Every structure is written in C-alpha cells, then in structure tokens.
DNA sequence: ATGAAAGCGCTAACAA
DNA sequence: TTGTTAGCGCTTTCAT
C-alpha cells in the first residue's frame, strides 16, 4: 500500500531483483554492452518485459552525459520552409535514435538566445540553428563553449567557426533576376520581411546571410543589366501586402518583383489582384521557395525552389556525425536551388526594352 | 590540467564554493525557495553570474521528477494544420516555461507508439497527441499508466478517459455539404486520405474521429437532401489527384466534392484543372482548413476554417493545468469552425435541381 | 538561516 | 562473467 499513489516506476533495480542478478548485470543485459551470459541476458529481459520496465532516459543522460536529443531553433514552424526543414531534421534524427526539441525564435535575437539557453540546460547533444542574425556570433558561441556541436542551416554567421548547410542563394537570385531583366524590366523590387532598421541602402550589411546573398545576387544581375534595383527590407510580416502596393503604384512603381520567400510572394500576389494588376501582363513576379499554390494559380509563379527537407536532413546528419566525434574544420555545404519556370514573367507593360 | 579537455561544466558546487556557502544554500539562493539571508543570496547570485553557472536541467529533473517539457505527437509537421497547432502549443508551453518535444507519427500506429515510448522515457511531464487511430486506446493508456497527463487534440478516442480539444467537425461538414445540396448537387464526394482498408461502406467505423464526424455530418446532410453520398477514404497522400480524377469522370461522376483537408483540396483543384473542368461552373469544391491559397485562386475556395493555433494552445493549456495538479473528469473542448464563403460553389452543370 | 547527507536511476570503474 | 561501489548535479529532508 505504501507505493500505491504514484505507483512507483519500475527501475532497473526491480528488474535486477526479479532476475536475481545485480543492477550492473541487469543494465548490461538490457543495454547490451559489457559481457553477460546468454542465459542470464534472457532471464533479465524476460523480467524486464514482465515488469513493463522502461529505462529512464533522464537517469541515463545523467550518468552518460548524452541525451540522445538534439535541439533545433527555427524562425517560425508555421513557415513552410522551416516546417519542411524540421521534418527533414526530424527524420534524420529519428533514424539515428535521436529526438528533436524544437523552438521558435520569431527571428528575434533575445528569443533565440533564451531558446538556446534552455536547450543547453536540457543537455541536448547538439544544436541546429537558423540564426536570427549574422551578428550574433557570441550568442551562438555559447553552444560550442558548452562543448556541444552546432550546425547552422539556411544561414551562415561570418566569423563563427561552425558547420552550415545553405542554398546557393546568390546564384538563385541572379537567375531569377535575369529572367526579369532579360524580359526587359528596368525597375525591379526585391522584397523581404527581415528587419533592417533605417531602411536598406546599397552597401548596407544585411543581418541574415541568405537574404544578404539574395540581395547581392539581385543587385549584381541588375547592375549587369543596367537596371534600377529597389531593395525593400523590413516589411512587417502582417503588412507585406501594403508594402507591395506601395512598390507597385505611384511615381517610381516597379514592373516586377522578386519575393524573398513564398509567404511574401503570396502577399504580392494579393496586392496585384487587389490593384487589378494582371500577372504577368502588368507585373512580373518571381519568388524563392516553391509553395504548393505557386503551380496552382493561373498563370503559375516562376520560382527558385530550395531542397528544404534535404537541407534539414543534411544539417542533422552533419550534427550527428559531429556528435559522434567527427573532427575536422567546419564546412559549409551549399545546395543548389532549382528554377521552376512557370508563367509569371513577361515583358513590362511599357515596352522600354524595345527600341 | 586535469579538467582541461572537456572544460568541466560549472556546477552548483563551484558556485557554492565561490560564495563560501554549502551546496544546499546555493541551491536555495538560486532556485529561490527555502529561506536564505538576503545578503547571502546576493553573494551566491554574483558568484553564479561570475562563473557563468547554468543549472543542469537534467539533474533537476532527476531529483524533482519533473522535466518542464511536454511532448507532442502530430501526424506530420509539414501539414499546415499540425504546424499551426504545434505553434499554438509551443507558444502556450513557452509562456509557462515549458519546452516542447515534437514527433511525427505519419498517422501510423507503430510509429506513434514508438514516439510515445521515447517521450515517456524522456520523462516529459505530459503529452499532446493527435492519435493516429481511435482504436488505439491501449497504446495511449501507456501515458496515463505512467502517471502523466495526456490531452488529445483534433481527435478523440472513445473509451479513453482523456481530455481532448477538437473542432465541431460534424456541424462543419453539415454546413459545407448543405451549401452543395442547396445549390442543387445530387451526387457529391467526400474525399479523405485516412486509411480505411477494404474501402468505406456506409456504417463502417472510421478510425480517426475528426474524419468520422465529418463523414457523419456529410452523410446526414446528404440524406436530408436525398442526395447520393460518395465517401472515398484511403486516397494515397501522393496520389490524391488520381483519385480525384476518377471521382470526377466516367459513369458515376460527382458534380461536387468535399475535401477533408487543404492538402486534399489542392489535389482536387489540380485534377479539375488538368481535366479542363472549371470551378464552380463544372464542379463545386469545398474543403476543411483555410489554406493560404484558398483565397488566392480565382474564384476562391469556400472553406470551413478551424482555429488551429487556438486548438494547439488550448490543448497545451489544459495539459499544463493537469500537470499543475488540476483534477476533475476529463472533458472534451469543442471549438467552432468558421465558414468562409468564397466562390467555389454553384449549381451543377446539368441543372437537375431546376424543374 | 544554514549545513550535512541521502537519494533520484542509471552507467562505469574496479574487484572478484 | 558478475558484483560492488562510486558518482552524474541537483533537491530535499533533517539536524543544527
């Protein structure tokens, strides 16, 4: 009756007793390591099954120092990009017997730091992070300082010696932009939601490397074409449509836009519709990430697709190998992106491209 | 030099030594519980900050039995429904100082059982589960048997005494279906991907309660209207489009379809497009879940929107209160769904509804 | 208000 | 091959 209320968990001690061996032997039989006589092993296993024994992973972590858990910090799991990367990481972790603890940073440094702290306190064996800003090397160094491997995904942090898995965003942006300039566009906007206090001016340092690379590629292609680059960062997530409207109307209206992700493309699309602007007749639109709806609307949206699941899986794979003790310098693995041509690009309305 | 390599972690022992107090006092000061003299508390805190002390959450779990972590098992995090529910749960957990461990079940019983086992072994304080099947009460009972609270979301499991947070799917299905029958449709399909070996026949028990409720509502509304209900379950996730094509063509082609989630609706939409069928002129389409693209295509898709973030947050809230010791019988909390009328419903092509 | 010591369940040296 | 013992870092009686 004394162990009634909480129905005390069955521990390895109970199993050992039932199988008439010592705790150590029971542990060896169950964890199969060390040496145990076949017959004894069987006896222990039966006892364990019989009692419904489940090892206490916390205790195991306590004594081994390893938790079989990895942490992952994403911007927002509701963003399909992160959801797919998370799934990729989860699959890879799972296959290796690891579990995944997930946190959202909302792309805010403070939130990210807190999340990392908690994960570290929980003794994750390693961390997967899409850093909210490339100026946060210090915050990230807390991970390696704690002696745990860290791999970045989607973004790198200059000055931080860490593995990273990213897409070739510069190249992707160049290809996407060329589509537009080749079609004759002379004034094109690049639109992103990442914060950039004070508004972007050519040459500014952009805090998220993937976006920085895209902007660099965009500007490069625009310069090549001798066209006007309008880079608009910091559009509020829930008000992108308004920003798009501003870009698309008035004096310096652009005739095409490059959306930095599928969520942004969605709002640009909405803005066009509300403005009565037809794609691609009145405005051309291209975007990063192949959202499910991009091929659904008529005409479809031309996009640069990133292998998101693979990026997540690869990042987890690298992390796992580091956890397993793999040495060597940090490397950044760059995935190619895939251009998916659909019908959202056409020459601009006033054919400035034709003499 | 002996503690060089792994640069041993700073423990409460080190803090205690630095502050010249006992471990117990240091722990009290840091965890602020028990009684500690103000001046001593300060001294300890300074020492901790100085040394960069971080409590070891694992050790704490070890001695308190509580991990400040909750587990969540979803079908697939890439499904926007689950992504949003996960975000809701994560937000609620976070606000209460809890972390979330996430697993995907892929709607497979075995995977789910394994995930639950791992989570339990990790000593999560409670579990949030969208059960893969309502016939899995036993597998779920492992959670309560382990003395940890369990709350289901999106689905219930008859015969299992557990809190649950769901949407009013029966009502939702009725409203959606009535839209169709009122428009004159006499042969309508309900399409879902959930497995149902052998194909569905009226009266069969459907393994996922949310779908079962939708089918019940659908059949109810169809009977009311004296119309032909075609219930098609078990469409393979990556081949829904083909199933939709079959439904939409040939002898007994339907003139309208109710898609059980937004992913399915997407494929039905694709099927229509490939078949050259116009929505809503040739076929009417309604669906559950308000995907971002539903309002984007032309015309928009009429949907029944579920408060996914709220469902996740509420589920986590209930779980947290149970963890906090809240007693009382298990309750199921039902959220209303919201009908969003757009333009995807019209009378069927052969106006059988008009005399 | 503070300290000493036990203990959470497991693994890992070390003995036997 | 097996058992004994000593921790892992923290919280928590129980004394003082």
Automatic annotation (TrEMBL), chains A, B:
<protein>
    <submittedName>
        <fullName>LacI family DNA-binding transcriptional regulator</fullName>
    </submittedName>
</protein>
<dbReference type="Pfam" id="PF13377">
    <property type="entry name" value="Peripla_BP_3"/>
</dbReference>
<dbReference type="Pfam" id="PF00356">
    <property type="entry name" value="LacI"/>
</dbReference>
<dbReference type="InterPro" id="IPR046335">
    <property type="entry name" value="LacI/GalR-like_sensor"/>
</dbReference>
<keyword id="KW-0238">DNA-binding</keyword>
<dbReference type="GO" id="GO:0003677">
    <property type="term" value="F:DNA binding"/>
</dbReference>
<dbReference type="InterPro" id="IPR028082">
    <property type="entry name" value="Peripla_BP_I"/>
</dbReference>
<keyword id="KW-0805">Transcription regulation</keyword>
<feature type="domain" description="HTH lacI-type">
    <location>
        <begin position="10"/>
        <end position="64"/>
    </location>
</feature>
<dbReference type="InterPro" id="IPR000843">
    <property type="entry name" value="HTH_LacI"/>
</dbReference>
<keyword id="KW-0804">Transcription</keyword>
<dbReference type="InterPro" id="IPR010982">
    <property type="entry name" value="Lambda_DNA-bd_dom_sf"/>
</dbReference>
């Amino acid at each position: 009756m004394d162990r009634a209320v909480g129905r005390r968990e069955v521990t390895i001690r109970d199993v050992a007793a039932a199988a008439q061996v010592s705790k150590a032997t029971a542990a060896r039989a169950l964890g199969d390591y060390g040496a145990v006589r076949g017959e004894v092993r069987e006896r222990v296993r039966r006892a364990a099954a019989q009692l419904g024994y489940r090892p206490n992973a916390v205790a195991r972590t306590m004594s081994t120092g390893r938790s079989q858990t990895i942490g992952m910090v994403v911007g927002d799991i509701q963003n399909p990009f992160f959801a797919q990367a998370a799934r990729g990481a989860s699959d890879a972790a799972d296959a290796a017997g690891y579990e995944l603890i997930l946190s959202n940073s909302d792309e805010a440094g403070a939130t990210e730091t807190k999340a990392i702290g908690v994960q570290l306190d929980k003794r994750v064996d390693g961390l997967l992070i899409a850093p909210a800003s490339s100026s946060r090397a210090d915050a990230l160094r807390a991970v390696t300082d704690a002696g745990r491997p860290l791999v970045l995904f989607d973004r790198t942090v200059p000055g931080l010696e860490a593995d990273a898995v990213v897409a070739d965003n510069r190249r992707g942006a160049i290809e996407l932009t060329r589509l537009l300039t080749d079609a004759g566009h002379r004034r094109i906007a690049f639109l992103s939601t990442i914060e950039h206090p004070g508004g972007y001016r050519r040459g500014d340092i952009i805090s998220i490397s993937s976006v920085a690379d895209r902007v660099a590629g965009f500007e490069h292609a625009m310069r090549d074409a001798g066209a006007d680059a309008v880079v608009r960062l910091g559009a509020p997530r829930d008000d992108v449509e308004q920003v798009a409207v501003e870009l698309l109307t008035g004096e310096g209206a652009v005739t095409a836009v490059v959306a930095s992700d599928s969520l942004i493309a969605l709002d640009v699309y909405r803005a066009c519709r509300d403005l009565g602007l037809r794609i691609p007749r009145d405005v051309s639109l291209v975007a990063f990430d192949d959202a499910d709806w991009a091929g659904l609307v008529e005409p479809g949206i031309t996009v640069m697709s990133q292998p998101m699941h693979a990026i997540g899986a690869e990042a987890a794979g690298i992390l796992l190998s580091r956890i397993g003790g793999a040495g060597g310098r940090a490397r950044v693995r760059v995935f190619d992106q895939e251009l998916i041509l659909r019908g959202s690009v056409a020459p601009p309305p006033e054919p400035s491209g034709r003499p």
